[in-house]
Amino acid sequence: MEAVAVLDIKDGIVVQGKAGDRENYQAIESRIVADNDKSPLAVAEAFYNKLAIKKLYIADLDAIMKKNENNIDKIKKIKQELPELEIMLDAALVDYKNAQNYLDDFLDYYIIATESLTDLKYLKKFSSYSEKIIVSIDLKAGQLMHNLKQWEKKKTNQIIEEIKGYGFNKFIILDIAAVGTRKGIAAYIKDLKNSFPELEFITGGGVRDYRDIKPLKRLSFAGVLIATAFHNGSLGRKEVELIENDKVLYKIAWCITGAGHFLEESIEQIERLKSKFENLEIDIYLSKAGFEVLKIYKLYNRLEELGSEIHKDSAASAPIMGRLYKGHYDLLVSSPTTSNTVAKVVHGISDSLVSNFLAHAAKSKVPILLLATDTEEELVSAAPNKMVDVYPREIDIKNTKKLKSIKNLDLISYPEEVEQWLKNYLLQVN
């Protein structure tokens, strides 16, 4: 899947699209562009250099809105300065010869939009350029935007089937009513993708953060159009890497605290999950005591051999917590979890990496599976080189029971239950 950055150009500058109300589009406000520069080249350079974007969707709104002018010189300048950046251009379809010249000269892809298409003969003319043509299925609040009488009584899926017959297999499906609204991708767009699994579909409009993109990856969309989420910081370079890593469809954050009880079994379960599910990635988060105990039990090297990211508790604050709010993780597992961490969770204390992760997972509605070590009055637990009897305190058992009242948190008794959760709730994992 590709992260495709969007550049809407109007009156020579980059504007912020919202709900398809083009007359009122305003100049962008962006965190990634230096000196508040709104020129197309400056914004394209920010996408390319700061976010490692490889493909750019450009809508020349001056051409689309028929202002008798266009921004082709500015667009061509982007390609000259950033030759490795692939450009997809929607400049309306007024003149076949101009579009042909653009493709032969500098352009990677030309977009034929249903909104601008005035005659089906253009589809036949462009059939020889089918690999460099992307057909945009333009919707507004679910209704296809077009000017063709032949399509008045046809459904969107019938029209896609007809266009496909001309030899085109690259499509954009975009509801402009959702652009800039942060409402997410509509279900009917996902349904259209399911109806045409053989076609390359790019979609977008309303993307808030990576949580909106994960389902699109799992449905094998070829790309996602992004503008607002890049400019406001909801998506950054790390998320672009994640979007374009087709090997990762699911992610777990796994926290380990300073308990010997179920420690080796937890590592065995991580090993099993990584071996069994090739599209699952697991990041490891260690409390200070968790790191120490892993060393004492001679298990840290085994953890390192998993090839997972390992994060240790090294500071009072934890900026990496932002991954929860940006939707990186489908699940947070804390196994094993000491009575100390359980007490912090129950009483709302978040002063360490793991307790912070548990608190912020709850705040961002990421499901939590927690294996507490102190659940019964008598336990037999693994210590280095031997087994020992453990008698949890009454307060420890009471705190564990209180965890049941926390929303989105489920107590588990064994690390193996994580696999069953994945099968029950992430049905695409098999």
Automatic annotation (TrEMBL):
Pathway: Amino-acid biosynthesis. Residues 251-406 form the Flavoprotein domain. It comes from the Bacteria. The keyword Repeat does not apply. Pfam families: Flavoprotein (PF02441), His_biosynth (PF00977). GO terms for cellular component: cytoplasm. Keywords: Amino-acid biosynthesis, Histidine biosynthesis. Gene3D superfamilies: Aldolase class I, Flavin prenyltransferase-like. GO terms for biological process: L-histidine biosynthetic process; L-tryptophan biosynthetic process. One of its GO terms (molecular function) is 1-(5-phosphoribosyl)-5-[(5-phosphoribosylamino)methylideneamino]imidazole-4-carboxamide isomerase activity. Belongs to the HisA/HisF family. This is Histidine biosynthesis protein. It comes from Halanaerobium polyolivorans.
